[in-house]
Specification:
Elements: H1 24-32, E1 43-45, E2 54-57, E3 63-71, H2 78-94, E4 99-109, H3 116-133, E5 137-144, E6 149-158, E7 174-177, H4 183-192, H5 197-207, H6 213-217, E8 223-228, H7 233-245, E9 248-251, H8 260-267, H9 273-282, E10 286-287, H10 294-301, E11 309-313, H11 318-327, E12 334-340, E13 346-348
Parallel strand pairs: 4-5, 9-13, 10-13
Antiparallel strand pairs: 1-2, 2-3, 3-6, 4-6, 7-11, 7-12, 8-11, 9-12
Helix pairs in contact: 2-3, 4-5, 4-8, 7-9, 8-10, 9-10
Length: about 350
């Protein structure tokens, strides 16, 4: 009797990871008509600045951070998919400066296409990351869907005075990025069958590395703003910070940490569809160098599944921020630019 063919999760999805997010412009159009009424005074962060999570003040020493994130497969291996999705969901808690306390699973699976064993492995992958973060998966919800979907509702705690919003940056702040860019390009190469084993290993190592430095940054008064770089790419999430803080950003492309194999693929024209949608949504607020090649724009807009933390801090805290990243295994962290007074735009140098 022949062994069953191994499951290839990406065959069941039209897009993968954070690349399947709704484009920023479309999302803004959808949310523009939403009317939020009767907001409680203790809701510290809601939808006002497109921040990473909602924050609710519980008492004078505790605020609850709540977020949810889920997506379709970015890799074929079920266990790896579960790990990546869970890491990505928990990142929004760390991006607010909070400590995760527990999670709920969000599960949608095509039960007529996937074996139960594969679904179980997805959940086990997510549970392994939650265990690494020191929290339980305390429940969840599941439905039968056309495409595999997995993620978490993640909850955390932080002192109300130490919440790190994406809108708190100040003129003169430097920008530090915690992870290398290029995950979306690698995922596109994977679907084309052109990603090397080393490239896959690097992709997996990056997307399953928890953004734990966010908890330490909550203790640093000179860290003024924090967010994580995910589906809208570096430019998209930096623009959210600029708009929330009403500042102008200068970005030094040559200083960006880039995954070497992603750069090679991008130069050969490999990109996700989400990259083009991202540029269409916010490109008018970005200035690129004269004659900038297409691959530069691709990497700047590349959707990062479980991407790195983007930190805005006072110049005197720059080395402390880089050192904290280094202590927690983010040796590729780099200072990539600065913020100044001016319109909410990004100039790439």
């Amino acid at each position: 009797m022949n062994a069953p063919e191994p499951v290839r999760l990406t065959e069941f999805s039209h897009g993968g990871g954070c690349g399947c997010k709704i484009a920023p412009a479309v999302l803004s159009e959808i949310l523009a008509a939403a009317q939020v009424r009767g907001l409680p005074a203790d809701l510290m962060v809601g939808t006002e600045s497109a921040d990473d999570a909602a924050v609710y003040r519980v008492n004078d020493s505790q605020a609850m951070v709540a977020t949810t994130d889920f997506f379709t497969p970015v890799v074929d291996d079920p266990y790896d998919f579960g790990r990546i999705a869970a890491t990505n969901a928990l990142s929004d808690v760390y991006a607010m400066g909070a400590r995760p306390v527990f999670a709920l699973a969000v599960v949608g699976m095509p039960l007529d296409k996937l074996p139960v064993s594969a679904i179980r492995r997805i959940l086990e992958g997510g549970e392994s990351i939650c265990a690494e973060a020191g929290i339980p998966v305390a429940g969840g919800h599941s439905i039968d869907t056309l495409e595999p979907i997995y993620g978490l509702v993640a909850l955390g705690l932080v002192h109300p005075d130490k919440v790190k919003k994406n809108s708190g940056a100040k003129a003169g702040d430097v920008l530090v990025l915690g992870k290398s860019l290029g995950i979306g390009v690698l995922s596109a190469a994977l679907k084309k069958g052109s990603l090397s084993e080393a490239g896959y290993a690097q992709m997996l190592a990056s997307t399953t590395r928890l953004n734990t430095p966010g908890m330490a940054f909550a203790e640093m008064a000179a860290v003024h703003a924090l967010t994580d770089v995910t589906g809208f790419g570096l430019l998209g999430h930096l623009l959210e910070m600029c708009r929330g803080s009403r500042l102008f950003a200068e970005l030094r492309f040559d200083e960006l940490p880039l995954i070497a194999e992603a750069l090679e693929h991008a130069k050969r024209g490999v990109a996700t569809g989400a990259s083009a949608r991202n540029w269409s949504s916010y490109g008018r607020a970005v200035s690129l160098p004269a004659g900038a090649p297409q691959w530069m724009r691709v990497l700047l807009t590349d959707p990062q599944t479980s991407g790195g933390l983007l930190v805005a801090c006072a110049p005197e805290a720059e080395q402390d921020v880089l050192a904290q990243f280094g202590r927690e295994g983010f040796g590729e962290a780099r200072t990539i630019g600065r913020l100044a007074d001016g319109p909410a735009r990004v100039s790439v140098l």
